[in-house]
Amino acid sequence: MTATEDLSIISLVMHASLLVKLVMALLVGVSFMSWYWIFRKSFAIRAARLSSDKFELEFWSGGDLNALFQSAANDRHNAGGMERIFEAGYREFTKLRARPNMDTATVVDGARRAMRATYQRELDELESHTAFLASTGSVSPYIGLFGTVWGIMNAFRGLSNVGQATLAQVAPGIAEALVATAIGLFAAIPAVVAYNRFAHDIDRISIRWESFMEEFSNILQRQTR
Prior knowledge:
This protein is an all-alpha fold. Helices cover 84% and strands 0% of the residues. The longest helix is centred in the last third of the chain and has 57 residues, at 167-223. The chain starts with a helix and ends with a helix. The model is unreliable at 1-5 (pLDDT under 50). Keywords: Cell cycle, Cell division, Cell inner membrane, Cell membrane, Membrane, Transmembrane, Transmembrane helix. The chain crosses the membrane at residues 12-39, 131-153, 173-195. One of its GO terms (cellular component) is plasma membrane.
């Protein structure tokens, strides 16, 4: 085996100690999981944004609210977050308004509470598994560093029986230990970037939903007069 082959990435991984191999395997698994959720969250956030755009266009086009409610109720499973918020608020509004002796404030507050509960469920669903990306970004470098430290310890321990240590003897052990840090960074960097981006996008979507709830509450209040 040549010196170049000894220092290839695959060769370094294959010749690493058992604990370092376990650390690398853990980091590779975490990296695959983080990429899986990066793609899943990307599609989910994009779908939430597009569905909100579509529903707002229909809502502010001046159409009948009853027809819009029936459309949302009939296709509830395929509806977006904003559409489900509207459907929950309008359902509660019509239910409370049908009761006798219900004042305007009680009816609108009931609709607002129904929208708030649905809003929270939709937001929780949108934020699900983003904490995994945050944990991956913060923990992976330290797991990789642990593997590196352990590998370097083994490399120097192996030199204790050697009369005169040379760079050629030390380099492979240190190089295979540093691979663990590299894999840790490879897992952490995309997770951190994706988490920050998703947090920003989800925050903007939540602001849109909250603004819609306030505007819709004002419309319902005018309808009860």
